[in-house]
């Protein structure tokens, strides 16, 4: 078990698995109350800079990640290079992620790339609960990216497409996807995603109309969503391609959730929301939000609902859901 640890500013050039943490497990393991920040590759070249910049999880066991922060990890180098899992990459049998934050992480995109990478093994029964994904970016390095996603599910082969990962009570907001087919939310390339009681708001896919929030990007990708909020309707927000299956079930609502940080404040952090990167401060390959000091504005994006404002996200969750752990007025 790994408790109360900081994995900060670990960098290695070339193709490396697990710059912050490399964990190989055969049984049950847990990571709790840890911070993974500023684990980067600055001068990587080739098509891959490795997997799991913050953490790389492998083996036949189960890993529980609780109350952790993944901040400003990822690829900042030059060339056609991909980061699989700028925050973390997992190929363990089951991963359970609860009450975690993913902010300011960055992945290059060549053929694919991601902030969280789920792949290459049986993963059914895995779940993300009460997690926040805000202010992350898929950075264009090549015009492919058909499997890219902020969270990318790419299991080993089509025989595993029924393996399901659940996302419950999660927020995806103010993230930027790449050009090509890079989704700024969840991309199911091989595997099944079930999303419930989640908010997807103002995620932007640069230079394309590919689904910014949810994308089923192949015939082996399946997404089922219910009781979720999206900023709007249509393929700009959710989309299936190349035979993928995407189903919006009961309880889907649309609108502005009225976060404490409004959309206007997020847009001020970008140089050009359709073409360039975030945040606005810094330039080129040495963008300062990937090294200390962290960009305060990027990490401070507040995606809680403002008090005193009627939000369409309130009281629209699954009526049969378990809300016993939520704070009450």
Question: Could you characterize what this model shows?
Answer:
There is one protein chain. The protein has 329 residues and is mostly beta strands. The protein has two helices and 34 strands. It has helices at residues 263-267, 296-299, and strands at residues 2-3, 6-8, 16-17, 21-25, 28-32, 35-37, 40-41, 48-51, 55-59, 62-66, 69-71, 74-75, 82-84, 88-90, 94-98, 101-103, 106-109, 114-119, 126-129, 132-134, 137-140, 149-154, 164-168, 171-173, 176-177, 183-196, 199-201, 204-205, 214-216, 221-226, 229-230, 238-240, 245-248, 253-254. The protein has a 16-stranded parallel β-sheet that branches. The longest helix is centred in the C-terminal third of the chain and has 5 residues, at 263-267. The relative contact order is 0.11. Residues 273-294 have low confidence and may be disordered.
Secondary structure layout plus pairing:
Blueprint: E1 2-3, E2 6-8, E3 16-17, E4 21-25, E5 28-32, E6 35-37, E7 40-41, E8 48-51, E9 55-59, E10 62-66, E11 69-71, E12 74-75, E13 82-84, E14 88-90, E15 94-98, E16 101-103, E17 106-109, E18 114-119, E19 126-129, E20 132-134, E21 137-140, E22 149-154, E23 164-168, E24 171-173, E25 176-177, E26 183-196, E27 199-201, E28 204-205, E29 214-216, E30 221-226, E31 229-230, E32 238-240, E33 245-248, E34 253-254, H1 263-267, H2 296-299
Parallel strand pairs: 1-5, 2-6, 3-8, 4-9, 5-10, 6-11, 7-12, 8-13, 9-14, 10-15, 11-16, 14-18, 15-19, 16-20, 17-21, 18-22, 19-23, 20-24, 22-26, 23-26, 24-27, 25-28, 26-29, 26-30, 27-31, 29-32, 30-33, 31-34
């Amino acid at each position: 078990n790994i408790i109360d640890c900081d994995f900060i500013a670990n960098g290695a050039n070339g193709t490396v698995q697990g710059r912050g943490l490399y964990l190989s497990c055969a049984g049950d393991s847990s990571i709790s109350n840890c911070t993974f920040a500023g684990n980067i590759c600055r001068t990587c070249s080739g098509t891959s800079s490795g997997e799991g910049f913050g953490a790389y999880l492998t083996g036949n066991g189960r890993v529980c990640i609780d109350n952790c922060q993944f901040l400003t990890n990822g690829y900042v180098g030059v060339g056609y290079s991909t980061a699989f899992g700028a925050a973390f990459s997992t190929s363990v049998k089951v991963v359970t992620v609860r009450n975690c934050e993913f902010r300011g992480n960055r992945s290059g995109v060549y053929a694919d790339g991601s902030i969280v990478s789920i792949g290459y093994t049986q993963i059914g029964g895995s779940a993300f609960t009460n997690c926040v994904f805000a202010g992350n970016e898929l950075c264009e390095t090549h015009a492919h990216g058909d499997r890219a996603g902020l969270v990318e599910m790419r299991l080993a082969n089509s025989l595993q497409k029924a393996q399901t990962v659940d996302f419950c009570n999660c927020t995806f907001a103010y993230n930027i996807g790449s050009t090509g087919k890079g989704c700024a939310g969840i991309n199911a390339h091989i595997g099944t995603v079930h999303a419930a009681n989640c908010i997807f708001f103002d995620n932007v896919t640069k230079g394309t109309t590919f689904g910014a929030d949810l994308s089923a990007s192949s015939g082996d990708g399946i997404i089922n969503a219910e009781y979720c909020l999206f900023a709007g309707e249509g393929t700009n927000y959710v989309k299936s391609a190349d035979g993928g299956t995407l189903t919006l079930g009961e309880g889907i609502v649309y609108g502005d959730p009225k976060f404490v940080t409004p959309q206007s404040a997020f847009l001020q952090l970008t140089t050009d929301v359709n073409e360039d990167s975030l945040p606005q401060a810094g330039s080129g390959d040495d963008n300062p939000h990937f090294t200390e000091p962290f960009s305060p504005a990027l990490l401070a994006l507040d995606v809680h609902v403002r008090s005193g404002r009627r939000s369409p996200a309130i009281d629209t969750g699954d009526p049969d859901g378990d809300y016993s752990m939520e704070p009450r007025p």
